[in-house]
Amino acid sequence: MRAMRACAERACAGAAASNVAASSTATIARTMGIATRIPTGRRTPMTDHRHPRALLVEDDAVSAAFLEAALARVPLDVDVARDCARARDLAASSTYALWVFDANLPDGRGDALLTELRARGTRTPAIAHTAAREAEEHERLLTAGFLEVLVKPLSTSETVAAARMALGLDVSLQAPVAPLRDLPFWDDTSALAALLGDRGHLTALRGLFRPELDAVQASLAKAVDTDDRAEIRSLLHRLRASCGFVGALQLGDAAARMSTMEPREGWPTFDAVLRATRDQFPAD
Description:
- The chain is of the alpha/beta class and 284 residues long.
- It has helices at residues 2-32, 61-72, 84-93, 110-118, 135-144, 156-166, 188-194, 199-226, 229-246, 249-258, 263-279; strands at residues 53-57, 77-81, 98-102, 104-105, 108-109, 126-130, 149-151.
- The protein has eleven helices and seven strands.
- A five-stranded parallel beta sheet has the order 2-1-3-6-7, sandwiched between helices.
- A hairpin with a 2-residue loop joins strand 4 (104-105) and strand 5.
- Helix 8 (199-226) packs antiparallel against helix 11.
- It is globular and about 50 Å long.
- The N and C termini lie far apart (79 Å).
């Protein structure tokens, strides 16, 4: 009996020492501004403050950054896939409230990806985005099962409205900004309107866009030289979307015009506009 009492006394002393140590550690951590997790032997109730998740499939870095920030306003937590292969992996391993797919991806098409995922029995609502304005392209995407087709360049407000509609939430869409008659090389007003006035976001997107200009110029020059029309269409498609997000109005218009012309005929004018756009790049 005496041995049992001694054992119990040692256990109580050990527990008290542990509590003192934990209390002291927590006090020191608070003093230093450090967050700590001290195991207490009890399961602490947890409140899940996470938002529903969206899968965004977009290969262009500028477009992906814009769309990720826009979807966060829905609000949604966003996973980004750069191609169909990665999208398949994410869709198989995670549950999403919304899919947002680019129509044209490096390893396939958004409508084909949607059809493939639907065949697995997943009914996640989906919206598409594309720089193409042809009615046939939009009809093809809608027929595949997308609830809505958004046309780049997009605004934050219309992206949020489309996502909320797909999720069955209340939709509040701001009035569209009137198109500009003049096309300067750079226009902060239109870019900020698309980003709901967030200048920090605009600066970040332009930081991604600047190195893209050199890469696009070199890639397009090579594609024009080899008459690789599929590559030319792909590069111009992505560039038009990026231009809208960062306010590069004249370059976006030049890309749209070149896409309707014979490559060798449209290249000199387009190249001149691209060089001027790069030379007049806004200061940070």
